[in-house]
Amino acid sequence: MREITPPTLRPPFARYAHAVEVPPGARWLVTSGQLGVGPDDVAPEDAGGQARQCLANIDAILAEAGMTRHDVVRINAYVTDRAHMAPYMAARDAWLADVVRLPASTLMVVAGFTRPEFLVEIEVMAAR
């Protein structure tokens, strides 16, 4: 896979690539949006804690598929308030700290999720 960040574009705002090229024949994995809730059905009260839980859930899905965060080519994230952007981005950047080829990424502010305590939802696409 190849990270694509053309020099004619403004650099990304954070740790992500403008695009990722996936070669022919790669095996794809697409996750549903993961909420910041653990197997005990409890969600941390803060956006950072929920983002970390979302990413832990994604790690479990990737592992089940024989993949890791190094295989992620796209992240879509949703937060319920602009105030949650920084805690989400800190969790994402920590999750990607040792990843060399960064994924493409989109972050959106949305009105809400299925339960009012949910503040963050993250979905990924991975390829290997």
Q: Care to describe what's here?
A:
- This protein has helices at about 45-65, 85-95; strands at about 1-5, 20, 30, 35, 70-80, 105-110, 120-125.
- It has about 130 residues and is an alpha+beta fold.
- It is built from two helices and seven strands.
- The protein has a single domain (about 1-125), classed as 2-Layer Sandwich (60s Ribosomal Protein L30, Chain: A).
- InterPro entries: RutC-like_sf, YjgF/YER057c/UK114.
- This is Enamine deaminase RidA.
Distance between the termini: 8 Å
Number of helices: 2
Helical residues, percent: 10-25%
Strand coverage percent: 25-35%
Shape: globular
CATH superfamily: RutC-like
What about the largest sheet? 5 strands, mixed
Stretches where pLDDT is under 50 for at least 5 consecutive residues are none
Number of domains: 1
Radius of gyration (Å): 14 Å
Q: Which CATH first-tier class would you pick?
A: Alpha Beta
Which class do the helix and strand fractions yield?
A: alpha+beta
The total strand number stands at: 7
Q: What's the architecture in CATH terms?
A: 2-Layer Sandwich
| CATH fold label | 60s Ribosomal Protein L30, Chain: A
Mean pLDDT, rounded to whole units? Answer: 97
User: Helix and strand succession?
Assistant: EEEEHEHEE
InterPro entries: RutC-like_sf, YjgF/YER057c/UK114
Organism: Rhodobaculum claviforme
Protein name: Enamine deaminase RidA
Pfam family, one: Ribonuc_L-PSP
